[in-house]
């Protein structure tokens, strides 16, 4: 059973534990940076709480990971990780949500942080993670004719795909 350090959460994120006690799966503190693993349904509400109430003004990064060949095993194949930073408190927090292999999906936070727009598009393009409510989830790194998601562990390492026709990007 994963461990939840309630004192750690309350010291670093006052009020967060009270608001999300049933949604927290585990916690970890590594070199002073807190990682909170949440259930996938709570991530949008948790990020809004961190921004509005605890003054985490900057979404530094959103990225995905494929844990399919990771030892020891993880609860699900995919994870989406959100790195947030508070300028006023000079503190970082990392939120992680695990997603099922079939239809990996999580709520978008693009309207809370403008930077999430491109981060979420990158995670979709490279891993196939769906962000519910994202207004323009299109390819950002791979060409429009590309089939599949190249950073998934099951994508063939020799999966070369030739670009058949180059056309200017539309709608960026």
Describe this structure in words.
The chain has helices at residues 6-12, 16-20, 43-52, 116-127; strands at residues 24-30, 33-38, 58-66, 78-86, 91-99, 105-107, 130-132. The protein has 172 residues and is of the alpha/beta class. The protein has a domain at 6-113: NADH:ubiquinone oxidoreductase Nqo5 subunit (Beta Polymerase, domain 2, 2-Layer Sandwich), CATH 3.30.460.80. A 5-stranded mixed sheet has the order 1-2-5-4-3. The protein has a two-stranded parallel ribbon with strand order 6-7. The model has no long low-confidence stretch (mean pLDDT 88).
How many strands in all?
7
Query: What order do the helices and strands follow?
Result: HHEEHEEEEHE
CATH class of the domain at 6-113: Alpha Beta
CATH homologous superfamily grouping of the domain at 6-113: NADH:ubiquinone oxidoreductase Nqo5 subunit
Largest sheet: 5 strands, mixed
Seen as an oligomer or otherwise, the chain set is single chain
* Computed structural class: alpha/beta
Strand order of the largest sheet: 1-2-5-4-3
Proportion of residues in extended strands: 25-35%
Number of helices: 4
As residue ranges, the low-confidence spans are none
* CATH fold naming of the domain at 6-113: Beta Polymerase, domain 2
Rg result: 17 Å
Shape-level CATH architecture of the domain at 6-113: 2-Layer Sandwich
- Mean of residue pLDDT? 88
What global shape is seen? globular
Query: Gap between N and C termini, in Å?
Result: 44 Å
Helix content: 10-25%
């Amino acid at each position: 059973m994963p461990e939840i350090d309630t004192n750690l959460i309350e010291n670093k994120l006052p009020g967060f534990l009270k608001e999300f006690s049933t949604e927290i799966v585990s916690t970890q503190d590594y070199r002073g940076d807190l990682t909170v693993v949440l259930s996938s349904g709570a991530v949008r509400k948790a990020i809004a709480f961190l921004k509005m109430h605890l003054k985490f003004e900057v979404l530094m990064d959103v990225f995905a990971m494929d844990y399919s060949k990771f030892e020891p095993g993880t609860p699900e194949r995919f994870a989406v990780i959100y790195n947030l930073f508070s300028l006023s408190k000079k503190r970082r927090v990392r939120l992680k949500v695990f997603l099922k292999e079939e239809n990996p999906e999580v709520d978008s936070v693009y309207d809370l942080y403008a930077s999430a727009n491109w981060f979420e598009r990158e995670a979709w393009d490279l891993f196939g993670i769906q962000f519910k409510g994202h207004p323009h989830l299109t390819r950002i790194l791979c060409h429009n004719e590309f089939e599949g998601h190249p950073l998934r562990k099951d994508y063939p390492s020799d999966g070369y795909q030739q670009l058949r026709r180059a056309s200017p990007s539309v709608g960026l």
